[in-house]
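Hi U.,

Before I forget, here's the chain from the pilot set. I'm dumping it here mostly so it's searchable later in email.
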Amino acid sequence: MSLALRPDHAAFERELAAVPEAVPVALALLDVDEFKELNDEQGQEAGDTVLRSLERTLDSNLPEDAIVGRVGGDEYAVALQRTSPESALILFEEMRAHVALRDAVSMSIGIAGRPQHATGAADLVRAASEALFRAKREGRGRVAIYVEDRMTLKSSYYPKAALERLSKLSDATGRTEASLLREALDDLIARHSDEL
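Structure:
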């Protein structure tokens, strides 16, 4: 495959909007962490080398019907048709780890899906952008799937005092309540992995 980069955000969003509504889409926004510092410390040529390497990784690992755009200086958007956000997470986590190992740079990636998180192209981009922001806020160098800031059904399962403590922890750490609960669930499963 030869990567056909859409030249800007508007061109990418137009092509994304043209994908029929019945087709599920996973949208990923990729951003090289601390790219400005890389350019400032090592020069623009070093930054350009990293971006070319990232583009080769995308070219080698994406399906042929992927819609890819360079939507900012070091930010790329990738729409994968007929792909769930969870499947996209696996693919982009592998690419993120590969780029980190090969190029010694960190990437943050945010993923959102249609119809799970949004229906229109602009809303899907917004959801993926929120996921990217969360990935950066939670430590960079990671992939995050879009989640609502507040879990709508959690009050059915947890006592009020626990929910208040969860809310305070969320405020103190700058993480969403959902991500904190996922971390607790992951820890629980890891502790009991020998029973699974």
